[in-house]
Amino acid sequence: MTVTPDDTGAASQGFAIPDDDATDEDVDVLYLAGQRPPAEGAWLWVTTAEGRRGGEFTALFLPRNRPCASGGDVLLRIAPGSSLADEQWPLPAMLVRVMAVVAGSVIHVAAWDHLALEEWPEIVRPAVAFAMGALKELQEHGADVGAYRHPSGQVEVDSAAGAAVAGFPALPTSVRPAADG
Amino acid sequence: MLLHVAPGTGPEADTVISVAVWAVAAGVLVPVAAWDLPDDGGWPERVRATVMFAMSAITGLGEHVDLGECDAVDLDAAAGVAVPGLPRSLALDGRVAAMG
Questions:
Q1: Which among A88, A109, A127 is the nearest to B38, CB-wise?
Q2: Which residues share a beta bridge with A143?
Q3: How far apart are alpha carbons A54 and A121 in whole angstroms?
Q4: How far apart are CA A145 and CA A69, in angstroms?
Q5: Is A36 among the domain residues?
Q6: What digits encode the pLDDT tens for the residues A17-64?
Q7: Which helix (H) or strand (E) holds B30?
Q8: Contacts of A45 (CB under 8 A, 6+ apart)
Q9: Burial class of residue A68 in the structure, from the number of CB atoms within 10 Å of its CB (0-12 exposed, 13-18 middle, 19+ buried)
Q10: How far are the Cα atoms of A4, A26, A64, A150 from residue A29, in angstroms, in the given order?
Q11: Global model pTM greater than 0.80
Q12: Nearest C-alpha of chain A: how many angstroms from B69?
């Protein structure tokens, strides 16, 4: 189910971020446009990102406490933009980072420090769609983007984002044994 | 991978530079990300991580899929009709390399 402005209940207030468990209802990311993010920021796990402008773009809020993600996930980190007054970048603004989880690492995809509150979902859509498409294709063709470093198989995104890297790590590739040995 | 760099537009055009990262895959021009950045010479570092991600992804895909490296694309024409996301043809048109 996707939460939209027409829905009722607490989750329809926009940034309804759970404390300990990921939400089980997708949020319409387009609906978040124009709303100020919480001061501490939020993590979103993108579940759908159509390429066309205005197309489906949904995500789940990760919990405030110990947010985790798995290999192949594409995440959005959103937070208020810089509070510094700047003639060139009038407030309010959003900081948005698109990140991917690959082989136990969090990888930078794209970042913006000053996006208008009303426009940010469509600005970041191409990067999200590209990352999701690339990871999906890689998985379908045998690359193990979910190879883990942590025994639990998940990545704690707050700590991993602090050590985020650029570019893919080497990916293990699944190998089919030869039929005749 | 391609970078498109152009003067900014709008009221801050004199101090802004527009930068976009594009990928070419299977004969299709794919937008990856775009920014309006301060024209202070720092834009290459701002876009580096995105270029590295996209190059890594395309390189990884190229090991399994024919991305049409020899197929030239008319960039100006393709940019006008570009849609975000990798083309479906990667999975559907039989370009997939044999896996064994």
A1: A88
A2: A173
A3: 9
A4: 12
A5: yes
A6: 877 776 678 899 999 999 989 999 999 999 999 999 999 999 999 999
A7: strand B28-38
A8: A22, A59, A60, A61, A62, A69, A73, A74, A75
A9: buried
A10: 9, 9, 18, 30
A11: yes
A12: 17
CA A75 to chain centre: 1
Amino acid at B6: A
Q: N- to C-terminal Cα distance for chain A?
A: 48
| Cβ neighbour number for residue B88 with a 10 Å cutoff | 11
Domain ranges in chain B are 2-92
Alpha-carbon distance B82 to nearest alpha carbon in chain A (angstroms): 10
The predicted model gives B27-43 an average pLDDT of 92
Does any CB of chain B come closer than 8 Å to the CB of residue A46? no
Domain assignment present for residue A175? The answer is no
DSSP 3-state of A20: coil
Number of structural domains in chain A: 1
Residues linked to residue B17 through DSSP beta bridges, in sequence order = B7, B37
Percentages of chain B per state (helix, strand, coil), in multiples of 5: 35, 30, 40
Chain A CB contacts of B16 under 8 Å are 88
* Number of Cβ pairs < 8 A linking chain A and chain B: 107
CA separation for the pair B71, B98 (Å, rounded): 21
pLDDT tens-digit series, residues B59-99: 988 888 888 877 888 998 998 889 999 887 665 443 333 33
ipTM of the complex: 0.86
- Which chain A residue's Cα is nearest to B55? A167
